[in-house]
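Note to self: keep these together.
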Amino acid sequence: MDVSYGRLSACKFMCYRTLIATSAALLLLLLASCAERAEARREGCKIKVGIVFDIGGKNDRSFNAAAWEGVKRAEKDLPICLYDVEPGNPTSIEPAMRAFAERNFDLIVGVGFAQGPIMQSVATDYPNIKFAIIDGVIFEKDGKTPKQNVASLVFREHEGSYLVGMIAASKSKTGVLGFLGGMDIPLIHRFNKGYEEGAKSINPNIRIVSNYVGVNDAAWNNPAKGKELALAQIEKGADVIFTAAGNSGLGAFDAVEQYGKTGDEAKKFVIGVDSNQNGVKPGFVLTSMVKRVDNAVYDAVKEVLEGKFVGGFHVFGLDKDGVAYALDKNNEKLIPGDVILKVEEAKKEIIDGKIKVTDAMAN
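Structure:
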């Protein structure tokens, strides 16, 4: 089985090598070679940071891209040596993570909840190494106590989704909205439920058409399927589609663009996710539900460097600007000022506890 491991960023070259077996030993040799070159060139490197992406890859312009932005900013600002691995398939994730651990990296970051069971195992085997996982929670063997060498970086996606739901309902002319999820799991249901509640706060009669790309990891990296589902939602009347599907969600961007514009305004809109995707298809992106994964990862790296690392839960909601809606030059003309005022008031009420947004993962 051939596995492409993408680029190791600190080496500044593309490692498009095909490895015959996904073994930790081979990865260890590759990382060792790259590490020696990088560390020889960079003076003052105080800690080594490794990040393992999910199969969507760091160029998905969404979830992985946000994590990548965070570690790259840390590499620019802080005296660290950074390495990354883009596994070709899910079976390659654990060997990559173990290879970093074998080289005594100071921090190993896993991107995505699916890496949870893997990190549980690796972090247990390497208790003196610090780990961080995005969207996952790692416990001790009792299943209750957070693992102290793992920072679990989690977000209140339902809060940010509520706000973009309000924007979507305010913009819709048909009274029908779409939701395109990646993998059919409780985490993505959290986006869906918040979106629905925000939309219904504007229009109680609005209808949400929801679809999920799949039930395994491949659901995050199938733009063709994402476009197919988005087009089907548009056929059912949806004129705004919120996508929480990683790289698959880019198919929804193509779908709304396919319908073109009437005058200067798009006929259909998409709402981006995780990163600010307003510039992916300018004019067709109503807004983006941004998760500040970049800030969370950056802070984790900085805390390790400063000796302030703390394991356990790190929760990011509207109160910490952990989630937000994106407003910039690409979409500011698409959202009327009175809608922004309503959304900002709702944001304040959510932070103050006056509005309780349902957390689908807690039910």
